[in-house]
Amino acid sequence: MGDRSFRLSFSPQRHGSLECVNRKKQPVEKYERGTRSYTMSHIRGKDTKIEVLVRSYLFRKGLRFRKNDKRYPGHPDVVLPKYHAIVFVNGCFWHMHEGCSKHSMPKSNVEFWQAKLLRNHNRDIAQRAELEAAGWRVITVWECELTKAVRDERLVRLYEQIVEGDADSAE
User: Fold this and answer.
1) Do 137 and 171 meet the contact criterion of CB atoms below 8 Å apart?
2) Is this prediction's pTM over 0.85?
3) Residue span of the structural domain in which 142 resides
4) Pick from 128, 167, 146, 149: which is nearest to 48 by CA?
5) Are 158 and 141 spatial neighbours (Cβ–Cβ below 8 Å)?
6) Three-state secondary structure call for residue 107
7) What kind and span of H or E run contains 141?
8) Do 130 and 77 touch, CB atoms closer than 8 A?
């Protein structure tokens, strides 16, 4: 075991996690072996904070919609049949938002992450094309557009894109 020791931490942030530290009290590993895989397996693809934020705003504005409808390619986050519009709320990392500071390629296991994120990106492009070919207006809202500084402006613009049918600005 060398110069490592283990301690059980009960701080509110760690919730009793086992933390590996060296004698200089610097964290060596954040997770116990096997814990990272378990943690990552519990990241879900629906009802994220940003999705709930967008849906609650649209609902407050009087729009009624379906959420995560499996009948459409990509299981869109919000489907508004009355306006023939579909909204995807994408995380910048998982969907490779180009030119965004929240998207960066992980430095470990680069080959795996490049392949995975590129698959996600290509699948998004194909699903968008399929929906547009079926006559839907597809609107993408990015995680970085929902930061506190620009959130209100983006949500107002989203509402206008849906109601007024502004397809030109539907990125």
Assistant:
1) no
2) no
3) 49-164
4) 146
5) yes
6) coil
7) strand 137-142
8) no
